[in-house]
Design goal:
mainly beta, 7-stranded mixed beta sheet, 4-stranded antiparallel beta sheet, 1 helix, about 5% helix
Length: about 130
């Protein structure tokens, strides 16, 4: 069974770069038909799709975050990484990584749901000086 685990600093200062890693076990991140995805939930708000890296290596990002976001992968470690630059307190959220099948990616992009795909447990990131 696939498992995903987020890791990274829980506190980031404003203007710095947030960097999170998702370590995957039980599946390869180069497996066909899956989108390896980052999603977040700010306090008091709904889930928000950030971006993904497809098994082919193709990436896509939320338009409002595109200029600040980069998702990459290390196949040798079976990990994929989120980098979000120039963070502000509005980037404070619980960040999740997820494996999403091709059949569910359209929904995840528009209205993420934990019933679609396999998700990590999430990690709290606070942006504060």
């Amino acid at each position: 069974q696939v498992q995903l685990q987020e890791s990274g600093p829980g506190l980031v200062k404003p203007s710095q770069t947030l960097s999170l890693t998702c370590t995957v076990s039980g599946d390869s991140i180069t497996t066909n038909y899956y989108y390896w995805t980052w999603i977040r939930q700010p306090p008091g708000k709904g889930l928000e799709w950030i971006g993904y890296i497809h098994n082919s290596g193709r990436t896509d990002y939320r338009p409002s975050l595109k200029s600040r976001t980069s998702i990459s992968r290390d196949s040798s470690k079976n990990q994929f990484t989120l980098q979000l630059s120039s963070v502000t307190p509005e980037d404070t959220a619980v960040y999740y990584c997820a494996r999403v099948p091709s059949s569910g990616i359209s929904q995840i992009v528009v209205a993420p749901s934990r019933t679609t795909g396999y998700w990590g447990q999430g990690t709290q990131v606070t942006v504060s000086s």
